[in-house]
Amino acid sequence: VNELSLIRKIRRLKGARGIGDDCAVIPMTSGNALLTTDLLIEGVHFERETHKASDVGWKALARGLSDIAAMGGEPRQCLVSLALAPWNIARWVDGFYRGLLALAQRERVALVGGDVSRAPQFVCDIVVVGTVPSGAQLLRSGARPQDAIYVSGELGGAGLGLARRAGRAWRRHVRPEPRVALGKFLRGRATAAMDVSDGLALDLHRLCLESGVSAELEGPLPLFPGATRAQGLGGGDDYELLFTAPLSTPIPARLRGLRLTRIGRIRQGKPGSLSDEGRPLRITGWDPFSRP
Amino acid sequence: VNELSLIRKIRRLKGARGIGDDCAVIPMTSGNALLTTDLLIEGVHFERETHKASDVGWKALARGLSDIAAMGGEPRQCLVSLALAPWNIARWVDGFYRGLLALAQRERVALVGGDVSRAPQFVCDIVVVGTVPSGAQLLRSGARPQDAIYVSGELGGAGLGLARRAGRAWRRHVRPEPRVALGKFLRGRATAAMDVSDGLALDLHRLCLESGVSAELEGPLPLFPGATRAQGLGGGDDYELLFTAPLSTPIPARLRGLRLTRIGRIRQGKPGSLSDEGRPLRITGWDPFSRP
């Protein structure tokens, strides 16, 4: 492998566009651009022994798309920075791009640039560019007391999958589904939104901090079959959308088959504090720095 | 260190703007957006023992700004993805951002987002967003036979610095200067441009490949005092601009004090082949995959 031959190969991939200059060129349209960048690192976000190359590629992009979805945007382009480890043979890299571009093509996202280098372990940084009409972007900071809190899909599946390493839950861990259609639907409806990437409790805590409010969970969580409530609250990697809306805003129970569940209420109170049926809730979730 | 406290700290830095949501929001203006992403990895691009934190931060951004300059753009925003190693204590991270933001503020670039994670060794991926009027972007593919070839500044300084690890050459290695003003000046003048990041010979080879032409070097290279011709041709990390223009286009000998030197001529011939005063030139330069 050398840099020139690797880039030559990437440029020829279906879904790649305009690669070869020092920057990607993106025509401006109206509205706002959304930009997100997400690291995916061997030994931190995946294991070489258990994760297939194509799943790693899929997930790298899915994480970025999920961020665009959380802001109500439509993803358009992506750039991929790769640091290859000595064990990343050409076949592995091919598999990585195959998985990434399968999702990119489904979501009509063009691969327009990136960087390649080496490192002792594999590192991918994905950049996704999206668009959103001016003022329509969903932020974490808009939740108001009395707003209802909703979450899409089912929680805890990825956490369960990581424990089981097999079955539907494992697939949920390795091939998360960015909720792009839901994000667009929430424009003008949700007062605040974010994706649940590190665990519901930690992410709701963050949303409440940004909004200067507290939150009360009420009723059962929509759990993935077999997942525990602890996995639902702190498991991470689910990539569902967490959002708030006034009670008066109609939110359907399903959107194109995706469950939307009301799980609680925003309250006035200590910013970021959470409670569960009246009892204080411990903030659990995934923090890269809390692992060895 | 945990993620929340680190992000809280980054948001308060002078030069940071609007951090805290799943994406950065960037208002679209007219023209084209330029996007570039560059990895900077411990043990590949710098050594923990010899490189100061603030220099690493400066260089991470300078590499991205240099890409924007090479396309004739004006840098506007940056995003920083950091994977911190166990040895990256808070003081080191502070120094990194201090160096990065010193350059960002000088160049009026806002830090608008990023990601933080951990890795066995420090990894930074910088994303820089720039703007350029539609159609004014400088590409690698526009060089035509008979165009003159130019390079800015002096070559080989960074290579010499890496060998000496002291003095002005070392400073050149750790604190490269992105040539943003020159890039803007070249709009409408240069037929092709790129930055010299991996060595003049390798980068000129790449430019010629994209343009489907060959190149002939003529006369002495503008070498950094003390640098050898080999360092000038293959040293890398100089971040000068390499560009071509028709002979009829006036190019000054200096632009705001920065030397601009004519170093050769574009020729019809095997795409990417280089010669030096009539003799074939070996393509030397920095390739991340050619190191152990």
Summarize the structure.
Chain A is built from eight helices and 13 strands. With 292 residues, chain A is α+β, with helices and mostly antiparallel strands.
Account of the 3D structure:
The structure is a homodimer of 292-residue chains. The first copy, chain A, is built from 8 helices and 13 strands. Chain A is an alpha+beta fold and 292 residues long. In chain A, the strands form 2 sheets. In chain A, strands 6, 7, 8, 9, 10, 11, 12 and 13 form an 8-stranded mixed sheet that branches. In chain A, helix 2 runs parallel beside helix 3, helix 2 runs parallel beside helix 6 and helix 4 crosses helix 5. The model of chain A has no long low-confidence stretch (mean pLDDT 96). Chains A and B meet through helix 1, strand 1, strand 2, helix 2 and strand 3 of A and helix 1, strand 1, strand 2, helix 2 and strand 3 of B. Strand 1 of chain A pairs antiparallel with strand 2 of chain B.
